[in-house]
Write a structure and sequence with these properties.
769 residues; alpha+beta; Laminin; 5 domains; 32% helix; disulfide bond; serine/threonine-protein kinase
């Protein structure tokens, strides 16, 4: 009894050792069983697994040797360096692990006929049966070729059930009717899609008329399922489509209709390795595995997804140049150097210098900059001053400064000193750097800006266009002309600026716009009384008389028109725009010049002869008088020919005693009939075709001034009241018998460039008599 107890005590350690060994075996077996679904690279090497068959890379879960593939669905049969799917003749050309796709080749179906419509014995028949894989419906197309073809495909799912059929037909009567642009549009070639989940296909091809009458260019019909994008139709295929096989894409997955969530619950069969992610495969095909972001390799091997070293490739990381890149598992980190802070990334806060470093850099830069500044300041001062002087000298010469100095040197000292030379900065400040909102007018010679000088003086600044040499002469001419004019009814020239690329003139600013606006704007015209019109005409005539007779050197304005007559707040006339004016030597009565001016105002004699005289201004002034009387525009191209020219139309009405038929309706004619008639007669004489028969501007000015004086001599409190008979005699005789052809004309004046000689020369030669 004692001996048996002793033996039990001796066996207890041995029993405990056996139990411990059993537990260790169980644990090891459990651990090994958990990695069966996702083996390691070393385990596959130990099993003698190869990964190449011909040119095809074959890696797990696919394999060629026993225990080297996941299950029988992934077996690749390598026969004579040619990979086939399972033990079939289905050739494999590519395995796409991350997409869960497999590219194979499959035969086409073909039926051919002779000229008599008899079937030839060279038929081909296409069929395909898959086990757990499916034909991709999104990346394959059913295709048929031929001009007498009916192609169809019978399909079933991978379990052999749910049989469906589809197809398409293609017909054409001649080779030329088939488009040869690579598309399969239904003529000579047709295509259609296939449904999802197809695991079996049988392709049939038939003919409607056995290719009778088309065998010479299309003896056969073809049908097949092909990868989308791998087939491009050509009309040569109608004669002979020599391909025996076409590529097809298959979908595959791990498990049988198992989702990722369900697969992860059973780690003994879960096929995805470390550092990988699970994705749902096509419907009914389970799941596929892909390496996680920052990893690459085979996601179906336990240690197949390797970390990507983003730091080794600048295209894979976003670290700034001055930072350091540190690779981490599945990612990387950017580090800024010492004395910098930030995340070091181009898409983040980058690297910013710390305060101490910034202070050191600033001090270093300041010392260096100070040294450079001190050593080069005197050179910079000399060079900049020389450059500035050269630029000013260049613009001064370019803008006719030498010519202006030469012209001004001939003038008296007070005249020279009256013209101020403005700086570029002064005029920039005055116009708010030539803001478009400051523009008050545009003309043939430039743009006019409203400016406010430092002393709050409001001025008009005329900025000329970029000019050629002849235009520079006109600019200088305007300065010289205006510098010699001292008249209350002429826009005063205050100065000029020659420091810019284009020259600038500075005038006094006239606030109330142009006479043209007040005549032809209905609202403004109502405020322009006959008294104001008569006075404006007299003041303008006085200016022209002064230019022709009283100036030290006679001046011809050459562009008299209502837009060049400005009005101030009291409707005082101010004649402007002397850009086209000419000084007339005292020993000459006329000048030969290139015709300049504005259509409608131009002297017809000047247009024909190119001989400019003072009488040319007289004609233009006559047109302005007619504008004041009639309120009509000088040219109206939308009117009948006889009414297009205001001057000709006015003379026609005067000749036919119909003056009051064209009087501006804004003018109250009661009590001023005699004045209107006298002014109209003055205008008529100014518009005589022969210049020598026109009055001088001095005569015109005196007559208009006489009318005003005559009006002023009358007592303002005495009102002449004509009896009915006298009124009827004075007004009725003039206003009765109005004709409808005397109507208002409207058109904008047009700068010369239009042939108006014919219009003017059609005036009656006795119109001024």
């Amino acid at each position: 009894m004692a001996s048996s107890q002793g033996m039990q005590l001796q066996l207890q350690p041995i029993i405990m050792m056996l139990v411990l060994v059993q537990l260790v075996v169980v644990v090891i077996f459990s651990l090994s069983a958990a990695t069966i679904a996702a083996p390691t690279e070393q385990e596959l090497k130990n099993l003698g697994c190869t990964n190449r068959c011909g040119n095809l890379d074959i890696s797990y879960p696919f394999g060629m040797e026993a225990n080297c593939y996941l299950n029988d669905n992934f077996f690749i049969n390598c026969s004579e360096s040619q990979p086939y799917l399972w033990d079939t003749n289905i050739g494999v050309t590519n395995i796409l692990h991350e997409e869960g796709e497999l590219r194979i080749t499959n035969y086409i179906s073909r039926r051919c006929y002779n000229q008599s419509g008899n079937l030839l014995p060279n038929d081909l028949y296409s069929w395909l049966t898959l086990a757990k894989f499916s034909i991709s419906n999104s990346k394959n197309k059913f295709t048929a070729i031929g001009c007498d073809t009916l192609g169809s495909v019978q399909m079933a799912d991978k379990n052999g059930s749910s049989v469906v059929a589809t197809g398409c037909n293609s017909q054409c009567s001649s080779y030329d009717s088939v488009p040869n642009d690579g598309s399969c549009s239904g003529i000579g070639c047709c295509q259609t899609t296939i449904p999802k989940g197809v695991g079996q296909i049988e392709v049939f091809v038939n003919s409607f008329s056995h290719h009778v009458n088309i065998t010479y260019f299309n003896p056969c019909s073809y049908a097949f399922v092909v990868e989308d994008g791998a087939f491009h139709f050509s009309t040569t295929y109608l004669k002979d489509f020599n391909s025996m096989e076409v590529p097809i894409l298959l979908d595959w997955g791990i498990g049988d209709n198992e989702t990722c969530e369900e697969a992860k619950k059973n780690q003994t069969s879960y096929a995805c390795g470390d550092n990988s992610d699970c994705y749902e495969a096509q419907i009914g095909l389970g799941y596929i595995c892909k390496c996680s972001k920052g990893y690459e390799g085979n996601a179906y091997i336990s240690d197949g997804c390797k970390d990507i070293d983003e730091c080794a490739d600048p295209n894979l990381n976003q670290c700034v140049e001055e930072s350091k890149c540190l690779n981490t598992p599945g990612n990387y980190t950017c580090y800024c150097p010492k004395r910098y802070h930030g995340d070091g990334r181009t898409d983040g806060t980058r690297c910013t210098a710390g305060r101490v470093l910034v202070l050191q850099i600033v001090i270093g830069i300041a010392i260096g900059a100070l040294t450079v500044l001190v050593s080069s300041s005197w050179l910079y001062w000399i060079f900049s001053k020389r450059k500035h002087m050269k630029l000013k000298e260049k613009f001064f010469k370019q803008n006719g400064g030498l010519m202006l100095k030469q012209q001004l040197s001939r003038l008296e000292r007070p005249t020279r000193e009256a013209i101020k030379i403005f700086t570029l900065e002064e005029l920039k400040w005055a116009t708010n750097n030539y803001d478009d909102n400051r523009i008050v007018g545009r003309g043939g010679f430039g743009t006019v800006y409203k400016g406010i000088l430092v002393d709050n003086t409001t001025v008009a600044i005329k900025k000329s266009q970029i000019m050629n040499q002849s235009q520079i002469e006109q600019f200088i001419n305007e300065v010289v002309v205006l510098s010699q004019i001292n008249h209350r009814n002429v826009v005063k020239l205050l100065g000029c600026c020659l420091e810019t690329q284009v020259p600038l003139l500075v005038y006094e600013f006239i606030t109330n716009g142009t006479l043209f606006e007040h005549i032809h704007n209905h609202i403004k015209a109502s405020n322009l009384s006959w008294e104001n019109r008569l006075r404006i005409a007299a003041e303008t005539a006085g200016v022209l008389s002064y230019l022709h007779s009283a100036a030290s050197v006679p001046i011809i304005h050459r562009d008299v028109k209502s837009t060049n007559i400005l009005l101030d707040d009291n409707y005082i006339a101010k004649v402007s725009d002397f850009g086209a004016s000419r000084l007339v030597p005292l020993d000459q009565d006329q000048l030969a010049t290139v015709v300049q001016g504005t259509l409608g105002y131009l002297d017809p004699e000047y247009m024909l002869t190119n001989q400019l005289t003072e009488k040319s201004d007289v004609y233009s002034f006559g047109v302005v008088l007619v504008e004041l009387i009639t309120g009509k525009k000088v040219l109206s191209f939308d009117k009948p020919e006889k009414e297009r020219s205001l001057a000709r139309y006015f003379l026609s009405c005067m000749k036919n005693d119909r003056l009051f038929q064209v009087i501006d309706e804004q003018i109250e004619i009661e009590g001023i009939v005699e004045e209107l008639t006298e002014v109209a007669n003055i205008a008529k004489r100014c518009l005589i075709v022969k210049g020598e028969e026109r009055p001088t501007m001095k005569e015109v000015a005196m007559e208009l001034e006489g009318l005003i004086n005559k009006k002023m001599m009358k007592h303002p409190w005495v009102k002449i009241d004509l009896n009915g008979e006298e009124s009827e005699h004075l007004l009725g005789g003039k206003l009765s018998g109005f004709e409808l052809d005397c109507t208002t004309s409207s058109s904008n004046t047009t700068t010369i460039g239009y042939d108006s000689v014919r219009e003017h020369m059609m005036l009656p030669t006795d119109g001024g008599r």
